[in-house]
Amino acid sequence: MKTSDARRLLRAAAAATKNAYAPYSRFRVGAALLTAGGEIVTGCNVENVSYGLTICAERSAVFAAVARRLRKIQAVAIVASGPKPPYPCGACRQVLAEFCPASTPVILAPLRRLADFEETTLGELLPKSFKL
Questions:
Q1: Catalytic residue among 39, 58, 118, 119
Q2: Which end of the chain is less crowded, N or C, counting CB atoms within 10 A of the terminal residue's CB?
Q3: Mean pLDDT of 116-128
């Protein structure tokens, strides 16, 4: 993925962290998806006092895209308030696999150091995703 595109997605994900609802962990996460049509759709984590009901930023973004009938995702960026690049949980990896090919770039960066991003692919994160 071109560095300029990666930075644009990272900025959108960073902006999404401002909308996170994280009163329990204080760990704010934002995700940005680049759709096949060139649109960027964002999401943020939303915690709940009953932690199992919490939604991650990645799934929040995917569900927002699907609600807009945008089901082909070309790239993903994830930014979080912690000191390291935030890797998606297993549930988010599987949800992404529903709408992204294994070759989809996944860009990860800590909020305070967007220039220190890492790039991987969904296939590297989830080499044997569940498929019907």
A1: 58
A2: C
A3: 96
Q: How far apart are CA 93 and CA 111, in angstroms?
A: 21
Would you state the structure tokens that stand for residue 113, as one six-digit string?
């150091």
Domains of the chain, first to last: 3-125 (3.40.140.10)
Does the annotation count 58 as an active-site position?
A: yes
Amino acid at 45: N
Q: What is the DSSP string of 36-87?
A: TTS-EEEEE-B--SSGGG-B-HHHHHHHHHHHTT---EEEEEEEESSSS--P
Give the H/E segment covering residue 29: strand 29-35
Q: 20 by DSSP, 3-state: which?
A: coil
Least confident of 1-5, 7-11, 120-124: 1-5
User: What integer pLDDT is reported at residue 11 of this predicted model?
Assistant: 98
3-state secondary structure of 106: strand
Confidence class for position 68, pLDDT limits 50, 70, 90? very high
